[in-house]
Amino acid sequence: MNLDKKLYTLKYSPDTQSHLNPDSEQCKTCVSRNCTYICPAGVYEWNEEKNELIINFENCLECGACRIACEKGCIDWQYPKGTKGVTFKQG
Amino acid sequence: MLNKDNKTDVIVVGGGPAGITCAMLLAKSGKEVVLIERGLFAGSKNVFGGAIYTQPTKEIFPDFEKEAPLERRNIEHNFMILGEDDSTTISYRKDDNVSYSVVRGKFDRWMAQKAKEAGVILVEQTVVRELIKNGTKVAGVRTELEDYYADVVVLADGVNSLLAKQIGLRKEIEPKDVALSVKEVIKLDKDTINQRFNLQDGEGAIGEIFGGPMLEILGLGFMYTNTDCVTIGLGITLDDLIECKYRPFEFLERLKQHPKIAPLIEGGTLKEYSAHLIPEGGYKKIPQLCDNGVIVVGDAAMLVNNLHWEGTNLAMISGKLCAETIIEAFNKKNFSRKMLSLYEKKLKDSFVMKDLKTYKDLMDIAHQRKKAFMGYYLRKINSFFEMFTSVNSVPKKEGYHKFIKSIFTDRKLSELFKDVWALIKLVWSILV
Known about the structure:
The complex is a heterodimer. By secondary structure, chain A is an alpha+beta fold. Chain A is built from four helices and six strands; from the N terminus they run H-E-E-H-H-E-E-H-E-E. In chain A, 21% of the residues lie in helices and 22% in strands. The radius of gyration of chain A is 13 Å and the shape is globular. Chain B is an alpha/beta fold. Chain B has three domains: 7-50 and 102-170 and 287-358, 3-Layer(bba) Sandwich (FAD/NAD(P)-binding domain); 176-279, D-Amino Acid Oxidase, Chain A, domain 2; 362-431, no CATH class. Chain B is 40% helix and 26% strand. In chain B, strands 3, 4, 5, 6, 11, 12, 13, 14 and 15 form a nine-stranded mixed sheet that branches. The radius of gyration of chain B is 23 Å and the shape is globular. Chain B starts with 6 loop residues before the first strand and ends with a helix. The interface between A and B is large, with 38 and 50 residues.
């Protein structure tokens, strides 16, 4: 089963602004790009052409793994606003 | 409800088992308590494997077995040791009422309701962005909308506890000190679950899964039965996940396809996918537990006994001991670190810290010898049973000799000595 189908089972109330804000300058020199595969929701994708991270923050499960796994430690990671983000009904 | 200065006795940040327990017990003793939860409702941001434990839960909620939304009473533990395509299961079955499977979105919400009935002021959908300090003392919290003040602030804000970090109670978490867990709740009808897991209505089974797609890495799988769905998931330490460069849900997909697991969930439909971090740093990574005007409880304090799949119980008991400490602090009108360190003492005297101390060396040894203990020996257990059950006209004695010889020849002999030494060290550290 692909990830989109998994994420489709979740209830989201996305914000208009990202609560995940990596330092894009540091991302350019990042070797491992751990965030692009560690994230259980596939939030981070690397855009080769633009040489920057695409952040699908609206899919975030708010686990915090990216913040800890980031080799640069450069992700400004906040909780979404109180009415926003993911809601687990079956946690 | 609060006075015009937004000042209350105690603010608890986070509506999980630790925070709710603490808030409720304080309210019962007559304190004015505000419990702040960032989700739509308590439980809506919470994920765990699947079971709450009867004895500790009863300590806090004596009638929970009659009142709480419970799924199934667990009567069986299945320790599943998975090879690539084979498996050995040790199953322990006894209806001794140790635990129940629950859904956090329902159970935590119920606990929060009990807290409200006890007088707790529950503020949901509100994120605490930072702690307010008055000199060296934590004096309140800053939310998105307004500031609240209190004599004591309890940090029950979960594994990521940005607040504990903000005030320097702990350092940044390292990847080896947390496991990333992903899980799926799969809908199946009740009778199918009963049949597949050999259960009656209301009875549940737990699967503790070793190996399979997680051979040679520090990861464990879990399986729980709810009334009409099955939970399957796994947790892998973040450093191993980084090292092997797999996506966490790819591990889960492979686990679901293992011949031992696949028939149990066949035909089910995915109800919900979720992910969460598990604090696994253990005793050595417990943060500073209190400071002037502030106490840390539950996951925020790294109180998880991963070997025994215990977390919610440690959370509840830490919340209880925290409440007892705060009541004492109010009696003495003293909210200093020295006074609040009574909480540390209470934790140390309880099973919580004693158990974490018992396993203080476990994760270090597990990290060092994971290829052996999470890989080689799991395969070896399966190959023993493969040998034992095979019928191939080869004399049994030859089979035994070959198996025993392989233990000495599969790998360098030094590996075997390292394992024995690690095992002696581990057993010594646990028992002595």
